[in-house]
Structures are given as structure tokens and as C-alpha cells.
Amino acid sequence: MTLKPLAGLLFSLCAAHAVQAQSSDPIRLTISYPAGASLDSMGRAYAEELRKREKTVVVVENKAGANGTIAATAVAQAPADGRNFLLSGDTLFTVNPVLYTKSQFDINSLEALGVIAFQSSVLAVRANSPLKTVADLVAAGQDKEITYSSAGIGSSGHLMMTMLSQQKPIKGVHVPYRGGAPAVMGLLSGEVDVAFLAVGNLLPHIQQGKLRALAISGPERLDSLPDTPTMRESGFPDFAVRNSNLIFAPAGLNDEARNKAYQQLEEIRKSPAFTALLDKLGMEPATIPSSQIKQWIQDEGGLWADVIKQSGLKVE
């Protein structure tokens, strides 16, 4: 064999090896919440569905803290190769730019690929609480301090209670925890009086009779809690909010990688197993065309910006 054909053969073998190595690289999904949270459960189910479809290893890592910024920063610094993703709530884009006045994180370093699900929050108390309705809570909160837990400063639970107190003033005392699961334990143990947390975090305890649901944050009642009224039905006509959970990727994906990731998201979201899990977690499947995601984020950001500015809340 002459040298030239041999060189060509070696080049082909090296190229094939490179392609094989690239395709065998794991997909990495970073979750911006701690293990045990409802978003974590959804993320791990998403990773399993992705593993089945791509027939490759999917590594899941939890990086909680700073309202999603720690996880977001890690993913933004990863290669934009279609194998690095972030699962986070929309507060990363809708709340953090207003709340964190000195943050160095650039939201343009990530791009939103799609919304997986909507998640309402539920206002809940312990089963032995004398508070039976939101009206009871408002009345009690005008006479004495009402303590409430949240997953941290600027989390949805914190902001929803802030919104509630802005619409009908109560003496609310915020007790932040490091994540949704500890915030639930704070309520169950009696450390706080009430919590406004993601349905998925509270639903098992409500179903077991340990907690009582007073109201749902979203615009409509949930199938998982059909007897629980919405905040609108409870005397708050302007209170209809829910979080969206999205898949992000490092900015700079090429069209092929972006389209493939979006197609993966669409297929997984519509799969029976994943839909059943969303129902179990008290979440609602969301379909927002990719062309409308930016507008959705802007609208939600405007809502929370008003709440934050009115409260004077800042995190440096």
C-alpha cells in the first residue's frame, strides 16, 4: 500500500473515531433546584425519557442556590453543542434581573428552548390550623403576625405572599429556607403558620391529611385539587399566576442542534409517561410556541417587576 492511500485510511479512521466519541459523550442536564423538589422529580423523568430516545448516558446534576443563578452560570459556560441543558423555572429571567441588583450573570448567555410545564402554587396551612379560608388568613394577619416559609428570598412562594399582602395588607413575616422541601418541613413542623409553595411539593401532604389547601394561585382549579378554590374565587380578582418550567441551553446553538433539542422537548412533553408524572406532581402540560417564549418571559417579568419594586425588595 502506498503512503497516500494509507494516510487517507488513517484520516478516515480518526474521523470516524471522533464522531463516535462525540456521539458517546453524555448529555448533561443541570437542575436549578435541590433533590427532592417537584422540579427535580420532573427533571429526572425528563432525563430518563431523553436517555431512551437518544440511547446515551444522561447525567443529572442539582445546583441549587441564588434563585437558579448558580446552575444557570454553570450551563452558560458549557459548550453550546446540544448536549448541555438547564432545567429551571422562569424566575431566572423574570425575577432575577430585577431582584439581584449586582448580579454578574448575563441572561443572554442562555437561550430558552421551550416550556415543559406550568406549575401553580398552593396556599396551605397545617390540618389543625384554625384558618379554613383565605379570608380567615387575611383577617388573622391584620391582628397578628403570620409567619410563612419559602424556598428562599425572591422565590415564587416569597413573591406570591408579597403580592397577597400588597392586595390585602397582612402582617406577614417571611422565613426563607434553602429550597422547597425544607420550606415544606418548616410548615409541617409548626415553625411557620402558612406557605405558598409549588403544588407538587405540598400535594402529597395535602392528600395525606397533614396540610389543608386554602387556595390555588393559577387561573383555574386543578384536577389534583378540585375542591380547592383559586385566589380569584377567594376574593383576589387580580391574582392569577403560575410558574413555567423551561429547558435552556448555552447561547450559540447552531440550527441543527436547536431544532433537535426542541423536537426532543416536544416529544417528551407529549409522551404518556411524562404527562402522567406531571399530573401526579400537580403540574399542567404547557405548549408555548418557541416564537412566543420571549414575549411570555417579558409579560411575566413585568408582573413581578411591579411586585418587587412596590415591596422595595433587593438582593445584592
Summarize the structure.
With 316 residues, this protein is α/β, with parallel strands linked by helices. It has twelve helices and eleven strands.
Protein architecture, described:
Helix 2 links the parallel strand 1 and strand 2. The N terminus is likely disordered. The chain is globular. It has 2 domains: 165 residues, D-Maltodextrin-Binding Protein, domain 2 (3-Layer(aba) Sandwich), CATH 3.40.190.150; 96 residues, D-Maltodextrin-Binding Protein, domain 2, CATH 3.40.190. Helix 7 packs across helix 12. The strands form 2 sheets. It has a 6-stranded mixed β-sheet with strand order 2-1-3-10-4-11, with helices on both faces. The protein has a 5-stranded mixed β-sheet with strand order 7-6-8-5-9. The chain is of the alpha/beta class. It is 44% helix and 20% strand.
The average pLDDT is 89
- Rg, rounded, reads 22 Å
Number of domains: 2
Estimate what percentage of residues fall within beta strands: 15-25%
Distance between the termini: 68 Å
Strand neighbour order, sheet with most strands = 2-1-3-10-4-11
Order of helices and strands: HEHEHEHHEEHEHEHEHEEHHEH
Indicate the percent of residues in helices: 40-55%
Instruction: Give the second-level CATH assignment, the architecture of the largest domain.
Output: 3-Layer(aba) Sandwich
List keywords for this structure.
D-Maltodextrin-Binding Protein, domain 2; 11 strands; 2 domains; six-stranded mixed beta sheet; 316 residues; 44% helix; alpha/beta; disordered N terminus
